[in-house]
Amino acid sequence: MFCAWLAGVPGLRMSARGLALAVGLTGLSAGAAGADDRWALPPEHEQFHVFLLLGQSNMSGFAQLEAGDEVPVAHVVRVPTTATNDFAWQPAAHPLHNRLDSDRFGLGIPFAIAYLKSHPGVTVGLVPVGWGGAPIAQLNRGTQTYLDVVAKARWAKGQGVIKGVLWHQGESDTVAEELARAYAGKLDSLVADLRADLGDSALPFVAGELAPFYGTGPEHNAPDRVVRIAQVQRALRDLPSRVPHTACASSKGLHSEDGHMVHFDRTSLIEFGKRYAVALAILQQPDK
Asked: Exposed, middle or buried by CB within 10 Å (0-12, 13-18, 19+), for 209?
């Protein structure tokens, strides 16, 4: 089953302790008196919708930042990817991830904005744990990154509801035949492990296609590399046919950030975030 062309689906309305950012807010929690309500956690557990963001650089964001990106988005909070203190919600702004210097504009916040348009009245919590350049073996069960996302997710479940996982990864698994061949099995195992460790056998999982231009640039267009890219792409596209309660967001028509022909540009990441939201909405329908 190939990724559905998800943009423009009819009938879909698109679109805390230690809280401190440039906006100068501190100590917000659910229903905190005097707090800025734009980032206060809702007192109702069911109104705080949390998403886990996993993958490599196209998830953590590689597009250039622009003026205004550092302004937090109302009703969207995040847990820092890396921090020296306890887990804490902060107002979410670009860059959403803070692991690498290359973490810039990504799809997580555009996804959250689209999700809020179809879920008015909720607050979105983002748990960004992407790692640029990471193969899937660096993200699956038993790795430090996997332990980190599970620990953050279990902590977040005490305040809200884990509504899904957003995944964009696979480029680093096209470098060798054995990696590309094993990719589908490793991805399926990752989905199963997350669901088991978080106690939700139907946790929605949305993967995104690799970029349509990946494999066209001079660094990655060797014939054997192109074959491996297609193999990983098929594993992502066919995920819904192998694993229930999963979806694949199409990257059709999206564009490259630069001549390396690996990373999506800013406009494409905004569109891609919306497509992830559409894919998730389809998964959340009662018959899915």
From this structure: buried
pLDDT tens per residue across span 30-59: 544 345 788 889 889 999 999 999 998 888
Domain range enclosing 213: 45-283
* Nearest Cα residue to 74 out of 23, 128, 17, 18: 23
Helix (H, G, I), strand (E, B) or coil at 171: helix
CB 83 within 8 A of CB 20: no
Query: How many domains does the chain contain in total?
Result: 1
pLDDT in tens, 171-180: 999 999 999 9
Q: How many beta carbons lie within 10 A of that of residue 254, not counting itself? A: 19
Residue 5, domain member (yes or no): no
Query: What CATH number is attached to the domain comprising 51?
Result: 3.40.50.1110
Distance, in Å, from the CA atom of 43 to the CA atom of 35, rounded to the nearest integer, reads 13
Closest CA to 169 of 216, 206, 143, 125: 206
2 part of a folded domain: no
Q: Which amino acid is at 251?
A: S
Summarize pLDDT for 156-176 with one digit per residue, the tens.
Answer: 999 999 999 999 999 999 999
Q: Specify if 16 maps to a domain.
A: no
Q: What separation in angstroms does the CA of 287 have from each of 76, 115, 206, 284?
A: 28, 20, 17, 8
Do 124 and 52 touch, CB atoms closer than 8 A?
no
| Helix runs in the chain, H state only | 57-60, 108-118, 144-157, 177-198, 223-237, 239-242, 266-283
Q: Taking the CA atoms of the chain, what radius of gyration do you get in angstroms?
A: 18
| 15 inside domain | no
